[in-house]
Amino acid sequence: QVQLVESGGDLVQPGGSLRLSCAASGFTLDSVAIGWFRQAPGKEREGVSCSSSNSGRAYYSDSVKGRFTITRDNAKNTVYLQMNRLKPEDSAVYYCAAHPILIDPYYFCSEYVTSESNYWGQGTQVTVSS
Questions:
Q1: C-beta separation of 60 from 46 below 8 A
Q2: DSSP secondary structure string, the chain?
Q3: Phi, psi torsion values for 66, nearest 5 degrees
Q4: Residue 105 phi, psi dihedral angles, 5° rounding
Q5: Per-residue pLDDT of the chain (130 residues; tens, 9 = 90+)
């Protein structure tokens, strides 16, 4: 059974940091494209950062480039999103997602958001506010 479980969301002040975790089961991280997406109230879900084991580079949206970092621990089958210099506009529910084909990270984050083949976690709330 494929399962993704996110954790680490919290209330943080602007300029602060958080690390989100996504524990995967039912598959191994090196067999899928993996990524973080977010959805703010009234907005569409958007790709934040995606990674694929057959690609030498991760993808980051322009709004988080230079502040967020996606990493994976294959031994723990867990993917992380380190978020630094957080801004109020980063506030959203953050979702971990996996796609069963090793597609390019850019396409996973930008073109495959609504793919019916995606597996999704339940989401974790990140609120950036003073």
A1: no
A2: --EEEEE---EE-TT--EEEEEEEESS-GGGSEEEEEEE-TTS--EEEEEEETTSSS-EE-TTTTTTEEEEEETTTTEEEEEE-S--GGG-EEEEEEEESS---HHHHHHT-TT-TT-EE---EEEEE--
A3: 90, -10
A4: -55, -40
A5: 899 999 999 999 999 999 999 999 999 998 999 999 999 999 999 999 999 988 778 999 999 999 999 999 999 999 999 999 999 999 999 999 999 999 999 999 999 999 999 999 999 999 999 9
